[in-house]
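I have been asked to look over a protein record a colleague put together. The record follows directly below this note.
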Amino acid sequence: MVEIKVGARDAGAYKPSRDDKFSFGLWTVGNSGRDQFGDATRARIDPNDSVKKLAELGAFGISMHDDDLVPYNATPAERDAIVARFARTLADTGMVVSMATTNLFGHPVFKDGAFTSNDRAVRRYAIAKTMRAIDLGAELGAPVYVFWGGREGVEAMASKAPADALERYREAIDFLCGYVIDRGYKMRFAIEPKPNEPRGDTFLPTVGHALAFIGKLEHSGMVGLNPETAHETMSGLSFYHAVAQTLWHDKLFHIDLNGQKIGRYDQDLRFGSEGIKDAFFLVKLLEESGYQGPRHFDAHSYRSEDAQGVWDFAAGCMRTYLILKEKAKRFNVDPEIQAALAEASVSELAEPTVGKYSAAAAAALRGDPGDPDALASRGYRNEHLDQLVMELLMGTR
């Protein structure tokens, strides 16, 4: 076995810096451990304290729902005081707001949906709340605004006509795009798909649905995606391939990283704690694709943890990402892996198959399509290639 030396493996090699662009939601480290079966297991963390601690750990930014920072019933004066204090904390730490979003799922008013509620007055309230939250995000410098349709869906299939719901969804996004343009904000939108939970069936459940939806928007160029590991994985889909297709469409505006077991509820586990091979290829994809956005962790510490466990969780997300980033570099210079890639003809897939259509090219192909029996006789050595990947991840290469 050839020993490949790419970088030091001491603890300092995996210490995050601002250049890594790691960010966390205020709701992630601020999660109190409460769930629908039990009360909180740890105290709420003040958003300003979260920013300070994350900066100390090496993160570069935070994200937030409007209600994470400003209570929905705050007076204008209270709102301004809260925001001013938070802005000072950002300035003092050098942290940025990397993404903002709106809580359109927590208050009972959204029990039938927000942009797709059957009640027109609720739909109007949801758009107005989002405009105020966009103002907050713009004030704090957020370049991306995410839309997760947590309550946009149904349990009773007869309760909503899907085409009408999608039309109201489109109307809301188009209106809010117009609002951002009119206000002169330097902000793009990103839609976050999810198949279910808290609704039984959610509108725009997967990356593919969301990409198709964006094509119907008036300002489709300013709307992309914010795919999340757990959301594709919980339904049995490949998050790696979802992100790859999003990149192929040039629509990866933001990304949510976490861990998830297939078929479970939305777990939001520490990044890399489940599906390590999937996480490896995801990191490799992000690092080699030219993606310049945040590596955003939308996850939270186990309910069993105390306050220190929250920061162990945050540090672990970043450290695992950096370890996998180094593994990706080793993959690219390991001679046995490179030889196995060649045996599998991986690079040949990048070559055009037939090129642009012409009658002459079609005639030539019809005249000599190849011998299927001869073509079928080759092996692609995928078992060998995958074993080498596993050895790399398990630390034996």
About this structure: The chain has two domains: 14-333, 335-393. The beta strands are 22-25, 61-65, 96-101, 144-148, 153-154, 188-192, 201-202, 223-225, 256-257, 295-297. The longest strand covers residues 96-101. The chain has a mean pLDDT of 96.
